[in-house]
Amino acid sequence: MKSISIKGSERESVGKKATKAVRDAGMVPCVIYGGEQPVHFQAESKAFKSLVYTPDAHTVAVDLGGKVYNVILQDIQFHPVSDAILHIDFYQLNDEKEIVMEVPVKITGTSPGVLLGGVLNLNLRRLKVKALPKNLPDYVYADISELQMGNKLYVTKLGNENYKLMHPDNTVVCQVKISRAAMKAAQEAAKAEKAAAKGKKK
């Protein structure tokens, strides 16, 4: 999985007044969990743009004065009116410990059902993946090249030896639905066939 870097500085005071001062200075208060002790730090709000405002998933290298923590985003709080980032929680990665993370789904291939007029519905845009940090994928690829009209692609078809998908086997990732146009065309074709059959009988 791709990693992005964020530079920040450790915080000594973490009370309400100190936190307000951090935000007033255009910084975001953050904390890293998962290590021996929580690590509190601050960073400029613009530093999180490529992490927060993207559909992709990333690991993060947080650089605090030369000491680097490899983490993933765990939780984020936004201001209810301005949408400004109020606080971010990160979880520290352990190279030997599996982690659960949401990863975006990427469609590959061409569905025969879509070529015949069907509509592809993506039921899940992200899937929960469990893996060692080094095996976290950038995307979970969903191959739709065998989907006929009315077919569904289940999560069991997306297995990979490097990671495990944390969803029930009957979870539908995407499906090809019959479009109104295709349904109308099928109905008209059936009527025409029926009419032709009647004509032959006469």
TrEMBL record:
Chain ranges of the Large ribosomal subunit protein bL25 L25 domain: 6-90
One GO cellular component term: cytosolic large ribosomal subunit
CDD domains assigned to the protein according to its UniProt record, in alphabetical order: Ribosomal_L25_TL5_CTC
Gene3D superfamilies (UniProt xref): Ribosomal protein L25, beta domain, Ribosomal Protein L25, Chain P
Pfam families tied to this protein: Ribosomal_L25p, Ribosomal_TL5_C
One Gene Ontology term from the biological process aspect of the record: translation
Family from the record: Belongs to the bacterial ribosomal protein bL25 family. CTC subfamily.
Function as written in the Swiss-Prot or TrEMBL entry: This is one of the proteins that binds to the 5S RNA in the ribosome where it forms part of the central protuberance.
Name of the molecule in the record: Large ribosomal subunit protein bL25
